[in-house]
Amino acid sequence: MQTNKREEFAMYRRQLLLAAGALGLSALVLPPAALAADAAPDVVAAYVAAWNAHDAGKAASYFADDVTYYDASVGKPVTGKDAAKTGVIDNFLNAVPDAVWTMKGDPIASGDKVSFEWEFSGTNSGAWADGTAATNKSFKFTGASVFTVKDGKITAQNDYYDALGFYKQLGLM
CB within 8 A of 81, min separation 6: which ones? Predict the structure, then answer.
């Protein structure tokens, strides 16, 4: 009888240790917060790649339907996927068909936020959406963006850059 109790206790202890080990391992291997944090930089990197491929439709596909795009130099946010595609992506890619958007270093990610410094360059060979004619001047300026990514979609993009320096390079100021 004593041997059976020892065997039962040993078996119970093994099962308990195996269960605790499996639980601990799954927490290390698949933490939900880490999965979400890993996804956000990937979404932003794919979005930037679509810009650099000059594929406005693909770039806009990374936006949530209710995305908010904020350009600090403009001061008024653009709300909605279609408005952001037309007012921002199409506007820039039409005015600067050779646009190149380069991340400077690795992005910084925390939770659903991703930010990075960047350099934007190209030649203004097309008209801007506001009717400003092409200057045919090359430019290069730096800035930073902060993105919010939820459920694999960009819900907010906030851009900060030296607009005055950009306009001066284009000869508009």
Answer: 60, 63, 64, 65, 66, 67
Give the residue among 39, 41, 42, 86 at the shortest CA–CA distance from 60. Answer: 86
Residue 168 backbone phi and psi in degrees, to 5: -65, -40
Give me the residues paired with residue 24 across strands. none
Cα gap 70→151, rounded to integer Å: 20
Q: Which two tokens stand for residue 125?
A: 């060979």
Q: Residue 1 CB: number of other CB atoms within 10 A? A: 5
**Backbone angles phi and psi of 61, in degrees to 5:** -65, -15
pLDDT in tens, 101-132: 999 999 999 999 999 999 999 999 999 999 99
The reply to whether the predicted model has a pTM over 0.85 is no
